[in-house]
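Please check this protein record:
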Amino acid sequence: MASMNFALLAKQYKKELFDSIIPFWLKHSLDRKFGGYLHCLDRDGTPFSDEKMMWMECREVWMFSHLYRTVSQEKEWLDAAKLGADFLRKKGCNNKCEWYFLIARDGTPLIAPYNIFSDVFAVMAFTEYGAITGGKWATQLAQKTFRRIQQRLSNPKGKYNKKLSASKSLVEHALPMMNLYIAGILRDLAPLPECDEIIENSLDTVMRTLFDKKTMLVYEYANPDGTHPDSPEGRLINPGHIIESMWFMMEELKRRNDKKQIELASKVMLNALEFGWDKEHSGIYAFLDAKGYSPTPLEWHMKLWWAHCEALYGCLLVYELTRNEKFLEWFKKVHDYTWAHFPDHEYGEWFGYLDRQGNVTHRYKGSRWKSFFHVPRALLYCWKKLEKLA
């Protein structure tokens, strides 16, 4: 792996970001009539729905703002971020600072704020937008939303929770994982006094409750005491989530120079790559069962864009921190698979969904779940990391 040409790879990732991904979304996504973004985009960028999912809207505000702050102060990026931020400020949440799940093109609420993941991405969006504009309203909105998330954390779905009182509450990996990420973003750009404690608690929940030392896997759900229900939900493994969670964690551990915990997190990521890789057809499985049963999610065998994006950056980050050559080997393996299957060389951008054999199953570039986020973030971070390694 010593012969890997980091400089050439850096150019490849930068070129894809600037020549394919960013132009696609600037051309097809901006809703200049109502504000915000059209994110349900067919292969060629034609909108196939004008509904707006809050996750996707907030992610796009964050991405354009983040590019503006960390890459170059391009007016086009600032204007794109403003288009989304102004729209969402007026239409995105209720008077309790709880963010809707889905709204119509004009901002009419369609699906209530029944969970906190819309809120998570709102924190990211308005923290970053406040940082590039100096707008106190944006920073305050991010902080208020963050605090409302913490109030709802013990029962994120509130009155929309379908579980009966006798049902055991499981700890969900996605919550501490995202809380760690957004608390870190706030601490760096719009600090609140509770950020450090929340980061610490999130790290602890992932590695003491959800992480299993025997299997070296982080489970999607666990009992509060760290045990795992012997059920499809209790055995569910999401390899992409583990990889993403570990690089979130390692960015924090890098800040602390905690070499012992970096080593442990790197072992967890390595195991997730090995466990989650399809040895017959290549690519990272969407879901697996910890005991080898057939996973219950129907898409378990599919290869999804976001998991491969997270693995690309995760491998480079761990290599930088540990110089473990295995992560360069894994980077090459994931890189080769990703670049052979996901980019659309005819219309630009990347496909999101492949079957187990690597065939494209959904031709669209944006949907309720895929947006201007995982691909550009991965390309940006990989480009920067590869330049540093070069």
